[in-house]
Amino acid sequence: MNTQTQAQRGTASTTTTPIVRVEGVEQHFGPVHALGPVDLTIGRGEFVSVVGPSGCGKSTLLEIIGALQDPARGRVEVDGAPLTGPRRRTAIVFQESATLPWRTVVDNVAFALEVRGVGRKERRDRARELVEIVGLGGFENHYPAQLSGGMRQRVAMARAMSMDPDLILADEPFGALDEQTRMLMAEELLRVVETIGCGVLFITHSIQEAVLLSDRVLVMGRRPGTFIDEVPVDLPRPRAHAVLAEPAATAAQERIWAQIRTEAEVAMRSER
Ligand SMILES: Nc1ncnc2c1ncn2[C@@H]1O[C@H](COP(=O)(O)OP(=O)(O)OP(=O)(O)O)[C@@H](O)[C@H]1O
Q1: What would the mean pLDDT of 191-220 be, rounded to a whole number?
Q2: Whose alpha carbon is nearest atom 25 of ligand 1?
Q3: How far is the CA of 27 from the centre of ligand 1 (A)?
């Protein structure tokens, strides 16, 4: 896949080495061939989404790139080096990212900095800045139980950002939120990613969300998942929801839907 254009667009680094390079990656769980083989390149500062039917292997791919599981076959390079274990600058955000219930919002965000040995004053200052960025200003001293699900997910996002990530791996991060909060969070994420310029691998079931956020959308076929289409999203940035009405956005959504429709139908029938 040609990611040169996106790699050059990236602001996080002067080098054009992609942040992620995956070659021939496969996963098997006993007799279950869960994934691949897949190849994938993510440029620096590039936002890539993966959509595909339930159970096709999307989370498996993300977990392999996050070093949460080893692939059965293939190679993964992050930031130009073979992946040997979890990386400090890879931030992972899940649907139900855990917050620490006994810590306030600001102390939850400061936690990753604390683990890295950053001094108390510096980490609190940085955490307050991030809390502000994700729109939780005024809630610094609240505890997770006093927040809505959407607000807790913002805490998780701020904590991920506190790690100064060059790569964010997000697995349905807004999947548990209501539609309205989800839309607001997607715009928030856009703003954050456009500010820090890191690479993103984003897994979603929402074609609309994928088109709104991404430079490219990869469509995965049913299990064992391989990429069956790559849809570039040629829309200017910064973006907001209004861009979804543009012809380039509707064309991209229709193309993606046409690709996954058959896959999803077959996958659904085989689950029955
Ligand atoms: N640890 C495991 N042991 C056995 N099978 C697994 C394991 N993890 C995943 N699988 C199987 O591998 C396949 C791919 O799973 P994965 O979670 O990656 O799919 P997905 O595309 O993320 O699904 P969804 O969209 O429903 O979240 C599924 O059939 C799943 O049941």
Answers
A1: 91
A2: 54
A3: 10
Q: Above 80 in pLDDT, residue 17?
A: yes
Q: Domain segments of the chain: what residues?
A: 43-71+85-89+166-272, 97-164
Q: Is any ligand 1 atom within 6 A of the Cβ of residue 268?
A: no
Instruction: Give residue 35 CA to ligand 1 midpoint distance, Å.
Output: 9
User: Residue 18 is encoded by which pair of tokens?
Assistant: 């992609």
Residue 12 has pLDDT above 50, yes or no: no
State the pLDDT confidence band at 256, using cuts at 50, 70 and 90: very high
Percent over 70 (pLDDT), the chain: 93
Taking phi over 0 as left and psi of -120 to 50 as alpha, with beta for the rest, 172 belongs to left
Rounded Cα–Cα distance for residues 182 and 123 (Å): 29
CA distance linking residue 260 with residue 221, whole number of Å: 7
Q: CB of 59 closer than 6 A to ligand 1?
A: yes
Query: Which has the closest alpha carbon to 235: 256, 253, 212?
Result: 212
Mind listing the pLDDT tens digit for each residue in 33-43? 999 899 999 99
| Radius of gyration for the alpha carbons in the chain, expressed in angstroms and rounded | 18
**CA-nearest residue, atom 23 of ligand 1:** 55
Class of domain 43-71+85-89+166-272: alpha beta
Which of 25, 26, 60 has most ligand 1 atoms within 8 Å of its beta carbon, as the pocket-test mutant?
60
Record the pTM: 0.87
- Pick the residue with more confidence: 255 or 9? 255
223 CB near ligand 1 (under 6 Å):
yes
Whether pLDDT at 10 is above 70 = no
Task: Give the other-Cβ count within 10 Å of 147's Cβ.
Answer: 17
